[in-house]
Description:
Blueprint: H1 46-54, H2 59-68, H3 81-110
Bound molecules: iron/sulfur cluster.
Iron/sulfur cluster binds near residues 32, 56, 59 and 75.
Amino acid sequence: MPRPSRYAPDNLPRPKHWTDDAACAGQVTAVFFPVGKGGVPASVDAVYAKTFCAGCPVRSECLTHALNFREDYGVWGGLDEDERADLLRTGRLAAERQRRQERAQEKADAAPAA
Ligand code: SF4
């Protein structure tokens, strides 16, 4: 049986989605896309958008979505695009550092005992 569409009319059953509990539900979308690399309106302030995120029950789901889908613009999960880019960069560096340590350990384990 096909899964019901998330975009089905409200009178049809649909699976619950994390966005259903978003604190920003019903807000003007532009609030979450303040000035940034996308060059959207200067009148919008990321700090204001982040006030919604601060108490949002699905903040981690929102941030995970933004990181997984590489949302380049706007406030997601309480972080703006620069903060998310820093988080991704930090994660990549940590993963690279771990890979190097594992390779070094494998070499050390494979080396004949002196
Ligand atoms: S974390 Fe912020 S942007 Fe994400 S759903 Fe919650 S209020 Fe909306």
